[in-house]
């Protein structure tokens, strides 16, 4: 029906052609992350199986987000007019909600085609059966899904990362969210080469770990873990993913911290540094955050849906994702399934219509042009540090103000004096989403009135 590369290419093209220059990384100095929701429309009524390749389909990006930042606890506001979490996945999901609000308002007014149709109950709506949604992320989500084993291969699993003297001397340096973490110097037994080469013959074909070189070729170890159930938690990130005879030299570290009051990471050298399956919060620079990791949020969306509590007042069923596609980066199929699906298998007593979804997970071979690895590869011989972009871009398929550029939780350009005003708000902060809900309620009430009494 569609491939991972098709989804990635569609999102990258949309990023290049539809998003403004404002908010994008400064060339050769900054990097960012990209996420999007793609609407897939199959021509056959009632068929929404992504594996069915016999049906003609149309694919369209309906929301997109970029960003790497989140605010600290001290900057949070009870008024709901600030974005606490500006990671790309969250920006894309919030803008997806904007799109859903608009589509439901369209369905209520009967003005044009909508993705929604009347439900079985009066005043309730549901998604038309020929639509489903694919979530794309240019990099593995931060948190549990990013805890991936490093195999002792002669090829680097990601593009080379320059090492400072301090980083080499400390084998447990944690990098920020989703950075291409470095293999500690004391764990490297021989110098790793960056040019692609064949995998060692002794590695069987069923290892559930994918590695990308950051160049044209890629090292891929195809997954075969659809029937396996990763452990909910534990100290090892390598269980069930590495065959006998292949040495694991370390694991990719996540900057996300364990939630206070719960189990902690062992922080031992090598593969026992992290404990997998734990809930984590995103790191802050000095000021700790209260934002859960993107792995945790995706797991929640896979149980509760992406629509949010406000839209559920008018929907018979949650809006679930059908598939999750990750761009070219360090990736593990089993780690993704553990983080997004496996940890929630014990959840029970959910309201009618809610359940843990068997989300399809795929990886693309296409690298995002503004990913950290891509930018570092271009600037390998240039002085200066590559840093994450401070701005976040949100885009939604809505008629009014589809683009929303924010920085530090407010609309880009907002001053201290303007904070608290309408002009300083992002279109996807909580108070703005609530205003969309009120607008929808008003439209529903207006359409219930006799035509002769309508304005």
From TrEMBL:
Function comment: Specifically deaminates adenosine-37 to inosine in tRNA-Ala.
Pfam families in the cross-refs: A_deamin
Record organism: Vombatus ursinus
GO biological process: tRNA processing
Reaction equation(s) it catalyzes: adenosine(37) in tRNA(Ala) + H2O + H(+) = inosine(37) in tRNA(Ala) + NH4(+)
Listed cofactors: 1D-myo-inositol hexakisphosphate
Start and end residues of each stretch annotated as Disordered: 214-240
GO molecular function, one term: metal ion binding
Family: Belongs to the ADAT1 family.
Gene of this entry: ADAT1
This protein's name: tRNA-specific adenosine deaminase 1
PANTHER family hit by this protein: TRNA-SPECIFIC ADENOSINE DEAMINASE 1
Alphabetized InterPro entries for the sequence: A_deamin (IPR002466)
Alphabetized UniProt keyword annotations: Hydrolase, Metal-binding, tRNA processing, Zinc
EC number: 3.5.4.34
Source organism superkingdom: Eukaryota
Coiled coil: none
Domain A to I editase intervals: 63-442
């Amino acid at each position: 029906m569609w491939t991972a590369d098709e989804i990635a290419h569609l999102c990258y093209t949309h990023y290049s052609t539809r998003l403004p220059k404002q908010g994008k990384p400064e060339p050769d100095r900054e990097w960012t992350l990209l996420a999007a929701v793609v609407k897939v429309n199959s021509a056959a009524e009632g068929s929404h199986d992504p594996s069915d390749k016999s049906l003609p389909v149309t694919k369209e990006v309906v929301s997109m987000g970029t960003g790497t930042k989140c605010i600290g606890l001290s900057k949070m506001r009870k008024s709901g007019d600030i974005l606490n979490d500006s990671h790309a996945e969250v920006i894309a999901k919030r803008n997806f909600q904007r799109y859903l609000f608009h589509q439901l308002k369209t369905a209520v007014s009967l003005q044009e085609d909508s993705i929604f149709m009347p439900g079985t109950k009066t005043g309730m709506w549901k998604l038309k059966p020929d639509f489903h949604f694919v979530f794309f992320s240019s990099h593995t989500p931060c948190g549990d899904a990013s805890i991936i084993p490093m195999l002792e291969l002669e090829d680097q699993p990601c593009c080379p990362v320059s090492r400072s003297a301090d980083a080499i001397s400390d084998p447990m340096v944690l990098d920020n969210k989703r950075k291409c973490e470095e293999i500690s110097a004391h764990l490297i037994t021989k110098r790793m080469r960056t040019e692609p080469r064949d995998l060692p013959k002794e590695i069987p074909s069923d290892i559930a770990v994918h590695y990308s070189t950051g160049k044209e070729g890629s090292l891929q170890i195809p997954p075969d873990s659809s029937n396996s159930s990763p452990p909910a938690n534990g100290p090892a990130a390598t269980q069930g993913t590495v065959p006998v005879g292949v040495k694991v030299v370390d694991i990719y570290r996540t900057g996300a911290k364990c939630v206070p009051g719960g189990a902690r990471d062992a922080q031992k050298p090598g593969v026992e540094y992290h404990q997998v399956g734990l809930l984590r919060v995103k790191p802050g620079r000095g000021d700790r955050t209260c934002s859960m990791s993107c792995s945790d949020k995706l797991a929640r969306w896979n149980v509760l849906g992406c629509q949010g509590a406000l839209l559920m007042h008018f929907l018979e069923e949650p809006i679930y994702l059908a598939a999750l596609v990750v761009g070219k980066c360090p990736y593990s199929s089993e780690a993704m399934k553990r983080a997004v699906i496996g940890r929630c298998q014990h959840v029970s007593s959910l309201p009618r219509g809610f359940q843990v979804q068997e989300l399809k997970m795929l990886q693309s071979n296409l690298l995002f042009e503004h990913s950290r690895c891509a930018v570092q590869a271009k600037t390998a011989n240039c002085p200066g540090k590559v840093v994450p972009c401070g701005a976040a871009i949100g885009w939604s398929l809505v008629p009014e103000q589809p683009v929303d550029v924010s920085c530090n939780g407010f609309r880009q350009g907002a001053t201290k004096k303007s904070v608290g005003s309408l002009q300083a708000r992002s279109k996807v902060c909580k108070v703005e989403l609530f205003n969309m809900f009120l607008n929808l309620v008003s439209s529903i009430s207006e359409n219930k009135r006799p035509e002769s009494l309508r304005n």
